[in-house]
Amino acid sequence: MTTIAVTTWSLEQTAPTDLLPAVAPGGDVRVVRSEVPSPEFSRFLYTSVGGDILWTDQLHWSYARWLEHLERPGVETWVAYDRGTPAGYVELEAQDDGVVEIAHFGLLPAFRGRRIGGHLLSYGTARAWDLADRWAGLAPTKRVWLHTCSKDGEHAMANYQRRGFKLFDTKVEEEAVAAAPGPWAGAFPV
């Protein structure tokens, strides 16, 4: 089995004032909460955004497992649409003691490089800070965190830092080399 060294960086914000919002892109780009838990839609977003950057951890999840995850209090999916077409998403996941993880964030390959990512990350981070306003019983957000790795897009780390996220941990681990899962061969722009 062939392996590669993968560096994972963890970043955080510890106050809402840490957020440095991006300028909204021109055109008809909207960010909308996907309020109805839909395993089909969430799996579509996960594979479409992460297919070329080796997101594989959730590919084996059953329909029931996806639904269980999506129905948890404090799990939200916010989707960016460019002229009505899904362009990317951010998934928030409430954790204990007022901590919110940005569990997934990214754009479909065809929408990268259009200034949508900074806007979506800004919007999603702001929603992480006000998550408790939408969920009775959740503690107010005290910290928002995420991780990115050396397999992610080349601009990921810079985008997080431009939005005010600060590095708090770095790990390097060996991982088995895996083929990109799709969505299908040749689907990604070169």
From TrEMBL:
InterPro entries: Acyl_CoA_acyltransferase, GNAT_dom
Cross-referenced Gene3D superfamilies: 3.40.630.30
Keywords attached to this entry: Transferase
Gene Ontology molecular function, alphabetical: acyltransferase activity, transferring groups other than amino-acyl groups
Domain N-acetyltransferase: 29-183
Entry-linked Pfam families: Acetyltransf_1
Superkingdom field: Bacteria
Protein name (database record): Acetyltransferase
Biological source species: Streptomyces variegatus
